Amino acid sequence: MTQLRVIAAAVLRDRRLLLVSKRSAPTVHYLPGGKPEAGETALDCLAREVREEIGCRLVEPRRFAEVRAPAALEAVDMHMTVYLTGLDRTPAAAAEIASLVWWPTMRVTLAPAIRLHVIPDLQRRGLLNDSAAVGSPQ
């Protein structure tokens, strides 16, 4: 079975999580990041993707989680390595990114890996606000 490999950044500010949506699927929100190129290390991939997608450099990235979940748009399983990281500047949508949001926010559709794994793990560790204040259907 095909498995999608992804490296992603969990960026927190004021106990809120940065999420992006892509132009190809503007209603689904993910962590910034992407697929590694041949021979590329996880951190090199993440640095490249974050620079391309939101115009920032990573600050003190550290491995946070290994997530396995259905890919949001492809009919395959996904293995995502998530790094908790800071950024060197305020992010802005670039390349294929349609929008940025800081979660929790008004209702947005979350990719399965974010909804089922990343957000609950960040909340369990006390790093992220509870969604109950604003509601999140997914």
- The amount of helix comes to 10-25%
What string gives the helices and strands in order? EEEEEHEEEEH
Radius of gyration: 14 Å
- How widely separated are the two ends? 27 Å
The unreliable regions are: 132-138
How many discrete domains?
Answer: 1
Quick one: biggest sheet? 5 strands, mixed
- Give the CATH architecture: Alpha-Beta Complex
The helix count comes to: 2
CATH homologous superfamily caption:
Nucleoside Triphosphate Pyrophosphohydrolase
Content-based structural category: alpha+beta
Coarse morphology: globular
> What does the average pLDDT come to?
91
Query: How many DSSP E strands?
Result: 9
Strand content: 35-45%
CATH topology: Nucleoside Triphosphate Pyrophosphohydrolase
Using brief descriptors, characterize the structure shown.
single chain; 138 residues; alpha+beta; Nucleoside Triphosphate Pyrophosphohydrolase; 5-stranded mixed sheet; 4-stranded mixed sheet; 2 helices; 19% helix; 42% strand; disordered C terminus
What's the SSE blueprint?
Layout: E1 3-10, E2 12-13, E3 16-22, E4 25-30, E5 33-34, H1 42-54, E6 58-70, E7 77-87, E8 97-103, E9 109-110, H2 112-124
Parallel strand pairs: 1-7, 4-9
Antiparallel strand pairs: 1-5, 2-3, 3-4, 3-8, 6-7
